[in-house]
Structures are given as C-alpha cells and as structure tokens.
Amino acid sequence: MDQGSIARILKQVSGGDDEIQQLQKALLDYLDENTETDASLVFSRKFYIAQWFRDTTMETEKAIKSQKDEDSSEGTHHAKDVETTGQIMHRAESRKKFLRSIIKTAPSQFSTLKMNSDTVDYEDACLIVRYLASMRPFAQSFDIYLTQ
User: Fold this and answer.
1) Pick the residue with more confidence: 64 or 70?
2) Which uninterrupted H or E stretch holds 44?
3) Segment Disordered: which positions (predicted)?
4) How far apart are the C-alpha atoms of 99 and 76, rounded to whole Å?
5) What is the mean pLDDT of residues 62-70?
6) Number of domains in the chain
7) Considering the domain boundaries, does residue 24 fall inside one?
8) Which residue, among 38, 30, 37, has the nearest Cα to 9 in the 3D structure?
9) Is the residue at 124 inside a domain?
C-alpha cells in the first residue's frame, strides 16, 4: 500500500477523526461524481454502503460476543475490556450514523455536498478500494489460510 497517497487523500478530505470513514466518504464522492459516465457505479455505491454497514454490524456483534465469552469464562469483569468494547461500540455507531446519513441523502443532493471534484481520481479510488479491502477480516487472515 502506498501510505503516502493514503495520507495525502486523508489531508484533502475533510471529515472526522475516523480515517476509514474519511476514505469511505472520498470513495463515495468519486463514485457519485462519475455515475453519469458509468451507470454501474450507482450499483457499486449502493453495494459499498450496504457492505460497510454489514461489516460495522458484524464488528459490533463480535465485540459483544467476545466480551460475553470472556466474562463467562473468567467470572470477573475487566474494566479495560469493557472500555475497549465501549470504544468499538461508539465507533460502530458513528460509522452507522454516517452511512445512514449517506443513504438518506439522494444522489443529486449528495453531489452538492461534495468537497472538491478533484480530490480523488481513478487511481486514488483504486488505492482507497484496495486499502479498505485490506482492512476486512478475510484479507487480514489470508496468510493464515495460505499456510494451512
């Protein structure tokens, strides 16, 4: 991954603290800008929003399940684990709120909310997609699958 390009994109994109959310917004902006030239980008945009929402939900469920498993096996409550789970829940809720706001916004309205039309080009969009894909659980555990 080209971390320099990712950092450059993050600097250009205005947004919150969550870099994943900033990259998602940049990619959605790019897809929305180019829907006139390629109609399949409308589907791609909707697919990414649905997939990110699903991923956020799954991450939250895993955090809750792991906390319950640790509590039942150890019998004690660790404040650090609760804080970590709380942070995961807070981050997940903020991502869901962001995605819901994107879903509720019509594509024509979303066009008016764009930051800069030249923030992300095709190469940057490809880089963002690769970076976000590398953050998914399957991509992170791919080496384990290969060694097995």
Assistant:
1) 64
2) helix 40-74
3) 61-86
4) 36
5) 81
6) 1
7) yes
8) 30
9) no
